């Protein structure tokens, strides 16, 4: 048995709402895969040093 693509963790969506979300996400994924196949460039910045990640970003937040 394969794992589900989506997991609802809050709320009670209808079957139609989950199906619509799955359709939209699969269409976006398909378009991006086709675009990457045509250009030969895969956009994947995960773990790159230039990524917008600042581990101290929330340390200096002031709450009013």
TrEMBL record:
InterPro entries listed in its UniProt record: ACC_epsilon
A Gene Ontology molecular function term of the record: propionyl-CoA carboxylase activity
Cross-referenced Pfam families: ACC_epsilon
Name of this chain's protein: Acyl-CoA carboxylase subunit epsilon
Organism for this UniProt entry: Corynebacterium phocae
């Amino acid at each position: 048995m394969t794992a589900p693509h989506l997991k609802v963790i809050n709320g009670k969506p209808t079957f139609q709402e989950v199906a619509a979300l799955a359709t939209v996400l699969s269409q976006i994924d398909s378009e991006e895969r086709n675009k990457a196949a045509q250009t030969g460039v895969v956009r994947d910045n995960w773990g790159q040093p230039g990524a917008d990640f600042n581990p101290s970003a929330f340390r200096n937040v002031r709450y009013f």
